[in-house]
User: Fold this.
Amino acid sequence: MKILIVDDEATTRMVLARQLRTLEHEVAEASDGEEAWLAFRLQQPRIIITDLVMPRCDGLELCRRIRSVNGSKYTYLIVLTAQSGRLNYREAMEAGADDFLAKPCETDEVVIRLRVAERLLQLTTKVDQLEGLLPICSYCKKIRDDGHEWQPVEQYINKRSNASFSHGVCPECYESHVKPQLQYLAERRH
Assistant:
């Protein structure tokens, strides 16, 4: 699993990165939220473990930025902090964090949290795949929408995107449908 560790304390980052690498994870590191934001957009890690208090961009702002991105695969966010208390926990969850760990954390605790993250990420991937399936009629090629109404493919896609259509005929359909009809019409004229 690709994991990004974000912490302004180099020692904390190195220790956690070493632990995760021994568990055979692909690990990247960032020293603050701005660096992590760039790494997130370039590398698309599936899990981010971020410190709460950092210079330039803190962990809460990083969580908010990541949650504001539409269309990317789900990223599991774990906030790691030396500050404890319900207020920090609630703020982290409201910012979009999935989990919250207090520093220093034991390796076993991190491993357990990562197992949960992996299970959740596997489920979100399956849901994304299922949502990507289109119920289409095998005869007329109409698509059933969320309201269980059947509509032409063009109408369905036009409502959900900026796509436009230019119609044509593929070579197979030309040979099997259009050409025989043209020949038939030509023969009838003579």
Observations:
- The chain has two domains: 2-131, 143-189.
- The longest strand covers residues 76-81.
